[in-house]
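If your schedule permits, I should be very grateful for your opinion on a structural question. I would ask you to consider whether the tokens describe a fold that such a sequence might reasonably adopt. Thank you for your consideration; the sequence and its tokens are set out here.
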Amino acid sequence: RYWSLGPSVPHHQQKMRCVVLFLFALVAASSAAVLELGDGKMDEAKAHPVFVKFYAPWCGHCKKLAPTWDDLADKVEKAGQTGLVSIAKVDCTADGKQTCKDYSVRGFPTLKLLYPIATEDGKVRIAASPVVLRPAAAKPRPPAGSPS
């Protein structure tokens, strides 16, 4: 039921990729189903993988992604796949500030797959995929007073 941190890391990464591809395929094939997670509300990710959108309400790209994210959640729910993966969002400006720091969110929107991992002592912790999608880094500005 849980993935381990042992020598099967490549297999684990393959599973993660399959889940992400499955999610994107659902959107391409054809809202109330979006879970709202945040500080102290991350237990859902200890039960099964959760595909999370970290966002800010004022973010234009986040607003554009919202209908697609809701559609994805509806399709996962209608396909009966909520036991395989849940679709969630975390508002990084409100109840999710610490959660966004914990998962190294540096821009909006950021999409990550969170999944349970059994530790050697039998406990379950939440691990995060490498970033699935985040905004492109802004071009650095030249120092003040330097020629452009």
In short: Residues 9-29 form the longest helix (21 residues). DSSP finds four helices and five strands in the chain. The first strand starts at residue 35 and ends at 37.
